[in-house]
Amino acid sequence: MNEKCKQDAIEHAKECYPEESCGLFLKINNDFIYYRCKNVAEDFKAEAFVIYPPDFADGEDMGEVVGIVHSHPDDVLKFSDTDKASCVAMETPFYLVCPNLDKMIVITPDEINADKN
Questions:
Q1: Is 45 left (phi over 0), alpha (psi -120 to 50) or beta?
Q2: What mean pLDDT is predicted for residues 45-49?
């Protein structure tokens, strides 16, 4: 993913802190953008994310969803088992940002499936 997308995702995570942020990386024509989504995880926003379905649908209408993005607010730059299961189920790369570390990592369904074998 390009540097602007990464920085936009990190900035969004900083604005959402101490809750988890969530969004989409979209491919529109030959360009990539970060699309902010609302986290509707209700009482669990500090440790989970659920993308507001109309935001996801709007993103799909704008372009191809090439990544699901969320943050771990407290400097844990490691995908949870739930993150990995969701990545495989959605057949889409997952990106994780840590707002305080200014870092982003990615995992793909193929990587997760290879680790199981």
A1: alpha
A2: 81
